[in-house]
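User: Can you help me understand a structure? I only have the sequence.
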Amino acid sequence: MTFDLVANDPQSKARAGVLTTDHGTIQTPIFMPVGTAGSVKAVHQRELKEDVQAQIILGNTYHLYLRPGLDTLRKAGGLHKFNGWDRPILTDSGGYQVYSLSNTRKIKEEGVKFRSHIDGSQHLFTPEGVMDIQRVIGADIIMAFDECTPWPCEYDYARKSLDMTHRWLKRCIQRIDETEPLYGYEQQLFPIVQGSTFKDLRVKSAEFIAEQGRAGNAIGGLSVGEPAELMYEMTEICCDILPKDKPRYLMGVGTPANILENIALGVDMFDCVLPTRNARNGMLFTTQGIINIKNKKWEQDFSPIDEELGGYASTFYSKSYVRHLFHASEYLAGMVASVHNLTFYLWLVRNAREQILAGTFREWKERMVKQLMVRL
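Assistant: Let's start by predicting it. Here is the structure, written out as tokens:
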């Protein structure tokens, strides 16, 4: 796996690069649609490739481990063969699910004991076990097993959690380095910076992660309820320390404005369920601002969802028709809206890259942050 920096924006810390994996190249900055259980909700793989133009998608270790299970995934030849996606895949290690399942899990030095949200059965995730699971899933990029601390968080808890996350990372690295990929292509481990919203902990963690010399690095534990200004402050601290010649992945972020502001701070990779989750509730992101398609004002608007955006879903279906689909509770509503929102998100990072290459990113970003968050 290689990462080549192509350009740096002269007026910000934004950069454009190319991440090369055995399943294809990824032009950064990039947004990665979330396919939690091996499927980006309500979106066909063909649409992901041809309409959305996704270059990499996510799977989730916790969910895929429970369903369909490791035996099925191994017999299929990994997630790429199982779901038919032939481009890169990144797997989240399950650390965030451990955070969100706070009522049904116990964290110890060995790992995390938790109950399945499906049937209540008990399971144990250890750093070593999670590396093995991600090997079986077959991800190109494997995430370290960490604890995602809540916000707000007491300093002492954040410090102890960070130290344990670093000890777990060492175990993850040892396991990855002593095992081989199962399906004949390269798999690389990305460590995760933690430390809540405490500057000294973020500095300590970023320095520790940078020292590990892995193929890429991630910033976790943000976008969990803290103010956006705190997110940006912590992200900038981390980006200033993490190596410039490795991709930086900000986990679970976010709104269009969040993405543009964090690109300006030096982030290369993003993921978030927001575009598809909000799509299923009728919120559409467009090049002119945000639409609640359920509102009556769109009832007889027969113009396309977003003609400027391009793409099949965005230009074929009218606002009036999509509003009708939602009010009639038709499945097609969530499908059209999801494809549209993901098309928008990939359009956004593609345009950000073009502006970085042209040296005009900062001015464009300032204009777009205001424009894209307007409620239409």
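Now, to help you interpret it: The longest helix spans residues 331-358. The chain has a mean pLDDT of 96. Let me know which part you'd like to focus on.
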